[in-house]
Amino acid sequence: MSQKKTYVADIERELYDQKNPFTYSYKAEQGLTEEIIREISAQKNEPQWMLDFRLASLATYHQLDLPPWGPDITELDVDNIVTYVKPTVDRKYTWDDIPADIKQTFDLLGIPKAEHEFLAGVGAQYDSEVVYHSIQESVAKEGVVYLDMETAVHEYEDLVREHFMSLVPPRDHKFAALHGAVWSGGSFVYVPAGVNVEIPLQSYFRSNAPGAGQFEHTLIIVEPGSYLHFIEGCSAPRYSVNNLHAGCVELFVREGSTLRYSTIENWSRNMFNLNTKRALVDKDASIEWVSGSFGSKVSMLYPMSILRGERARSEFIGVTFAGGGQVLDTGAKVVHAAPYTSSTINTKSISKGGGTAIYRGLVKINKNAHHSKSTVTCESLILDNESVSDTIPVMQIDTDEVDLGHEAKIGRISDEAIFYLMSRGIDEEEAKAMIVRGFVEPISKELPLEYAVEMNNLVKLELEGTIG
Q1: How many whole angstroms separate alpha carbon 230 and alpha carbon 259?
Q2: How far is CA 193 from CA 190, 224, 255, 263, in A?
Q3: Nearest Cα to 191, choosing from 159, 224, 158, 215?
Q4: Residue 390, beta-bridge partner list
Q5: Between these two residues, 80 and 455, which has the higher pLDDT value?
Q6: Assessment of whether the complete model's pTM goes beyond 0.70
């Protein structure tokens, strides 16, 4: 008797694959040259120090090799990537002023509706530039600053210059250097001391141009005793040429403050997603990462928390779904650099149709970080015989006075569980769907479903799956 295989359908991507005609007011040539960097900086009318930073990053990029570990990314040829595409619209502050074709893209994804109902502020980036930005007046009155990065470079130049790529220096790796050279767009957030931003801010990044790169930079500073929830969404339509996403996120979480950073990345299957995210967490402060990785051809994403103050805390929860032709190499990194710090990492992955899901993580506890505590839990669900799931944890412990735990599980859908549910009157397909839903529920309930409309679609269509 042959065993019936479980089939989980791919996400119905029609909503995200809406392509607009490829129009622009300026487009850089393919490749990476000093002339291109100078032209990008000139288009933005940047101060001299930023141009100098870009050129130094370009030199670093040419000096560094590709990482000798991780997924194969040799197919990515940066010489064939367009690093800057300026859409045919300047930044707008009222939604009605956005051109119809761009507005329709975000309307379909539910961004304006989410803004009006749930969000304190919204930024929308289209290709290389932010085309829309707004913040509720009540939030702005408390001194909260929420701007696109280009505006922040001019209006908060000293603050940006002090923090920009200080957590993720260009020498960190080759794609950090690339980002430093060609970054464009992104968000700048500053929350004053003692301010509780009760409703989230959201930025949405949409890549429309074929064969292009998106290099947004997000810089968030939450001063002592404050609170912020920031939501980031990303998507792109499918093309027959490779696209590249190499953004950078730098988070500064000051003493006694809390920052929750939620991300859903839903790139198409021609995207190389090589993103870098890092948080610096001070005394009695907390960083909470909620991460969903979907789509993309190859992903390499490992949000990092540096716990430099006593009793600093980090929590990472993430879910990854790898389908056919995808290699999603994701995880988290934590450095305990002070006593009495604590961290938890909780990840779940699903792989099907020949997809590869890899957890790659690091927990480093420094010699001075006595009485630190860290717990790592990795669970993987493999839905067929063709798919792959690997766990690659690294633990570097330089002191004896620690509490450390690591647990990893890899499994398949249990025939016994299916039989039990069917014996209760549930048909086989729904029984399998219930098990997949139950597997991701502890993480999916942490996703800000009530705010990011796109996440509702993704959790329903891809995580829960259509099984038959």
Answers
A1: 8
A2: 10, 5, 10, 25
A3: 224
A4: 358
A5: 80
A6: yes
